[in-house]
Amino acid sequence: MPVIEVTNLHKRYGDVVAVDDVSFTVEAGEIFGILGPNGAGKTTTVECVAGLRSPDRGRVSVLGLDPRRDATQLRERVGVQLQESQLPDQLRVGEALELYASFYRDPADPGELIDKLGLGEKRKTPYKKLSGGQKQRLSIALALVGNPEIAILDELTTGLDPQARRDTWALIEQVRDSGVTIVLVTHFMEEAERLCDRLAVIDRGRVVALDSPAGLVSSVAPEQRIRFRPSAPVDDRLFTDLPEVTSVQRTGGQVVVTGTGDVLHAVTSVLARNQIIAADLRLEQSTLDDAFVELTGHRPAE
Ligand code: ATP
Q1: Ligand 1 atom closest to residue 40's alpha carbon, by position in its atom list
Q2: What is the pTM of this model?
Q3: Residue 71 is inside which H or E element, if any?
């Protein structure tokens, strides 16, 4: 059963079409990623899901409810962490959690949540004295303090150093394992690949692909490259005659064979038949970065 259904969503700001006919569903218990370049319409889409914006057209259903009409009911069941959430400078970590917990009927225990998010030692620290990573973890805690069934997290790890980013990923996996469905907006490929069960790639307001990270890579950028140094001179035709091979290039003493399907097996078999040894053999497969470039024409962030 989908917990979120977005159908033919449209939203424009004046002349700018931010979301142009977006549809997707999110299943219970999954981490669903919304990936796309800057300005693609990701935030606007999740704001419509969170009930913070009204769509111009289309339908959004969250837990069977309408995010605008049924906002009061959904507030208890959907936690939202939006970009750059700002809190008053002097508000302490513990106070912020207590305050937010008071907004909910059945909140999580703020103390437990603080420990779980690794903020135990910062309980009495004012917001302005937290590091970027700590602010981020606090904003996740605030999204989770109402014990939501769905958490919407926007640009979760932007601005974090690599270690803080990894820690945050581990945390999100724990949250998912506790049964919370997560919608994650990101423009980091590694984050999408590591965390998301399924992804919608959005570009210029449209969904250009929707699949698991692995499914996306194999459908959009299925090519593999095999690099090696042959032990004896070898004719390109040996490879170009193989149906799996799309091209052969030479760089220095290296042969680079590009192809699809079981190209590795095809190439190694033909080499063996010709008694050629392939030294320094490496197989390079496409990544989500390649698929992203293919789909959007943009270089991925980082
Ligand atoms: P980013 O990754 O940079 O946050 P995004 O994919 O989340 O981008 P949105 O923030 O949804 O994209 O913006 C989509 C488009 O709508 C952009 O062209 C943006 O400039 C425009 N836009 C967003 N919010 C507003 C607003 N309040 N008023 C006018 N235009 C807006």
Answers
A1: 6
A2: 0.84
A3: helix 71-75
- Residues in a beta bridge with 198: 32
Specify whether 37 is located in the same domain as 79: yes
CA distance 25 to 94: 36
The CA radius of gyration of the chain, in Å to the nearest whole number, is 24
| CA-to-CA dists, residue 46 to 32, 57, 299, angstroms | 12, 15, 23
How many domains does the chain divide into? Answer: 2
The pLDDT tens digits for 64-107 are 999 999 999 999 999 998 766 678 899 999 999 999 999 898 89
Residues at CB less than 6 angstroms from ligand 1: 13, 16, 18, 36, 38-44, 187
Q: Which residue's C-alpha comes closest to atom 26 of ligand 1?
A: 13
Question: Rounded to an integer, what distance in angstroms lies between the CA atom of residue 89 and that of residue 20?
Answer: 38
Residue nearest (by alpha carbon) to ligand 1 atom 15: 18
Q: Do 211 and 274 sit in the same domain of this protein?
A: no
**pLDDT tens digit sequence for 187-246:** 888 899 999 999 999 999 999 999 999 999 888 888 899 999 999 999 999 999 999 999
Domain that holds residue 237: 223-285
- Ligand 1: which of 6, 12, 13 to mutate, judged by most atoms within 8 Å of the beta carbon? 13
Q: 44 CA distance to ligand 1 centroid (A)?
A: 6
Q: Which of 12, 16, 20, 186 should be mutated for ligand 1, with most atoms under 8 A from CB?
A: 16
pLDDT band per the 50, 70, 90 thresholds, residue 265: very high
